[in-house]
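Section handout 9: paired folding examples.
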Amino acid sequence: MAALGVATYSTATVALYNSWYRDYPMGDFRLFNDNREWLQMDKAGHVFSSYFQTAYSCDVARWTGLSKKHSLITGAAIGLLSQTTIEVMDGFSTQWGFSIGDISANLAGAALFVGQEWWLDQQIVFIKESSLPVRYDKSHLNAVGGGAYSTLERRATELFGPGLLERALKDYNVQTYWASIDIKSLTHIKAWPSWLNIALGLGAQNLYGGFENKWTEGDATYDLNSVMPRYRQYYLSLDINWRKIRTKNHLVNGIFNGLNIFKMPAPAIEYSNKEWSFHLLFW
């Protein structure tokens, strides 16, 4: 298992560097306070990533025959090592910096999984994600003072990349993070299906910069702070706990376990901008 872990970690680290950091200059290690960036959606992403990496690493450790205690230690170590590697790379990048807030979110995600397994021997609250990339508007945006124009599509490509996979991973406008709650285990209501969870979601819209919707392209400045204000979105929805759906086929059960990091499309109630809305099928 140790050899497999080293190989997986090394491969993932190289892939991460090539996809995220290779095109940006590196410098001296530095700290960076990004706690106000992206309306904290990036912090929710760190909680999610650390949670599911810890969970799956723990599953693999248990499969190899390790005890519950040592599986939890191994899972948390792998999950936190993966996330800390990203933070160290950020620390040496002139584009970003080492974030104490990110490290805290990573610890929270790992602690949520380990704490529930240790004291409850199960997960009552699962951290999940849903994401559906969108096409951004190509209408002209005039620069401050005129003389130049850009588009939301150009800005999104600069921030989040051109590909669908890149945008699914980086675009906070299309990501929603969920706390999916096992109602059956929490309340012991006999009539409640064991596989049906209630999910609380967090999203955001109009994020075209880390701290504000203002940027420069060449000598031109664009400012959308007044016309496209940033805002959070809060959701209430239903979800499937795939770990409670068991079959006699180990492969199918493994697929179900893998699906459990994603929030399933379902009806949802949204509250944002002091208004309520209903989604018949929210992705």
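Moving on to protein 2 of 2.
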Amino acid sequence: MSEQVYHIPALLPETLDALDIKSNGIYVDATFGGGGHSRAIVEQLDSNGHLYSFDQDEDAVKRAFEDPRFTIVYSNFRFLSNFLRYYNVDGVDGILADLGVSFHHFDDKDRGFSFRFEGPLDMRMNQKAKQTAAWILANYNEEQLANIFYLYGELKSARKIASAIVKARNISPIDTIERLLEVTKPLINPRQEKKELAMLFQALRIEVNGEINVLKKFLQQSLNALKPGGRLVIITYHSLEDRLVKNFMRSGNLTGEMEKDFFGRNLSPFKLLTSKPIVPSDEEIERNPRSRSAKLRIAQKLQP
């Protein structure tokens, strides 16, 4: 399988510019995935520089390349601080997180990430985790299901879909992609079928993998992990993620509330390097349609 088929990294030149890579710097790629960003970062390092890349998916870790300037960490990036401590790293010059799902996941019918296939409703990034999408559909009550469809999928029909799932699972389990589609398609706007199904599957995936809580933990740790002057570079793909990242980069906390000193001056630990997110060019979207919703934000940690 070629690198390109596994995953095409979004906004690659823009990401490298954003990190402002020093040849002897220490960097983190929190989401190794297909390795496209990681390879490009390592190519800009000398023998004193190093990159630590995280991934919790065994498939991705197996495909990691070998290089003395590179370390693959088989773990979720919510454990960023623990592993930097383990490797005796007391500060890094840049942290990248591309929060998108690898093509490989969407294109593997056995992983259950896409409504384009028939197969089990799995959706686990970490195959050793216990909670699958099928488990959630079998065990969450109607209110819990409605909340995840509304909050994580922004589906207007969230309550109707949740109600239909609860009724249908009493007749037979909803443990395959085709069974979920059978239950939910009648409630989906046929004019926006692909978009709304994508939103439904996104909501389930976020819940299965605890993506919002993971992102919150990662953001809080990233501030301490960065050296003064270090850069935080994050690519988001939906509004919930983007709002969290935007608030954190603006204020240094998850609420986005700006602390001020006695004189009314902002006390954010970051300097925003992008007033608006960087988005893919028309040319990139044509080459890689899945990059369409990508938004790149950059912040630099200030001197204390």
